[in-house]
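ugh ok fine here u go
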Amino acid sequence: MIIKKNIALSDTGFVFNPSTGDSFSVNPIGLEILKMLKENKPEEEIKKHLLGKYATDRDTVEKDYYDFTKMLEQVKLTDTDGKEKD
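structure:
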């Protein structure tokens, strides 16, 4: 999954899409995931990081990661075909 390059992230979890003018807030874990996605980290690396850092199990990480990334797609923060879109 690719996060659009123009998406701005603040250290407090504020997310801004300049293409649409939309803004969102994410919790610290969501921000951590977004930052890793912007760094083009592979999905498995992100999940492994979350499993090692937080007291959770693989099934929970899988479900929560899937739900979060689907939400990112719905609010048009992603570019799933690898090409930048506005």
